[in-house]
């Protein structure tokens, strides 16, 4: 935080100054200050469900578990920033969305995984900390494989 008590972040490429207590979890800065409601709280901020996952400086992060005071200058991507990402298209193509609550967090976790590892193993995909109560895991796995194939394919 700077001397004004404002947390400066970039969210989906937009510079924001957030006037909230530095202990406020990033999740609430995203939802209540940036008005981006795609990011969900699932487990009450206990760090167990992955619904709140966003990408911070290229890595997947549970936004319920990180205070904005520790993120000065960070570059945050939420599901709204992945509208044109291959993961999003793959989730739709594989019909991997049932109730949809886990999807914002899953998409961010998958996009960060593919950025770090373009050819993740099934075990690495299964290790993502994102729960789907609808039982869509097989389709979610296929969506990551599809997105990986799209991202690895040479541009036409
Ligand atoms: Fe469940 Fe963050 S809300 S891990």
Unreliable runs: none
Distance between the termini: 45 Å
Number of helices: 5
Strand content: 5-15%
The helix fraction, in percent, is 25-40%
Task: Describe the protein.
The chain is built from 5 helices and 5 strands; from the N terminus they run ββαβββαααα. It folds into 2 domains: 7-78, Beta-grasp domain (Ubiquitin-like (UB roll)), CATH 3.10.20.30; 81-152, DNA polymerase, domain 1 (Orthogonal Bundle). It is of the alpha+beta class and 156 residues long. A 5-stranded mixed β-sheet has the order 2-1-5-3-4, sandwiched between helices. Helix 2 (86-93) packs across helix 3 and helix 2 (86-93) packs across helix 5 (137-152). The model has no long low-confidence stretch (mean pLDDT 93). Strand 1 and strand 2 (14-18) form a beta hairpin. The radius of gyration is 16 Å and the shape is globular. It starts with 6 loop residues before the first strand and ends with a helix. The chain has helices at residues 26-33, 86-93, 103-116, 122-126, 137-152; strands spanning 7-11, 14-18, 53-56, 59-62, 75-77. FE2/S2 (inorganic) cluster binds next to loops. Residues 41-43, 45, 47-52, 62, 64 line the site of FE2/S2 (inorganic) cluster (FES).
Short description:
It is built from 5 helices and 5 strands. It is an alpha+beta fold and 156 residues long.
Topology (SSEs and partners):
Blueprint lengths: L6 E5 L2 E5 L7 H8 L19 E4 L2 E4 L12 E3 L8 H8 L9 H14 L5 H5 L10 H16 L4
Parallel strand pairs: 1-5
Antiparallel strand pairs: 1-2, 3-4, 3-5
Helix pairs in contact: 2-3, 2-5
């Amino acid at each position: 935080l700077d001397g004004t008590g404002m947390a400066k972040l970039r969210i989906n490429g937009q510079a924001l100054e957030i006037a909230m207590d530095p202990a406020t979890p990033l999740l609430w800065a995203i939802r209540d200050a940036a008005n981006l409601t795609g990011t969900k709280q699932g487990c009450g901020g206990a760090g167990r469900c992955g619904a709140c996952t966003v990408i911070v400086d290229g890595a997947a992060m549970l936004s319920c578990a990180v205070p904005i005071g520790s993120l000065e200058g960070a570059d945050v991507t939420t599901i709204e920033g992945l509208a044109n990402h291959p993961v999003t298209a793959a989730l739709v193509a594989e019909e991997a969305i049932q109730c949809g609550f886990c999807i914002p967090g899953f998409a961010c976790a998958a996009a960060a995984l593919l950025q770090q590892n373009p050819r993740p193993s099934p075990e690495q995909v299964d290790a993502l900390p994102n729960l789907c109560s609808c039982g869509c895991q097989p389709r979610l796995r296929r969506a990551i494989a599809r997105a990986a194939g799209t991202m690895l394919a040479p541009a036409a």
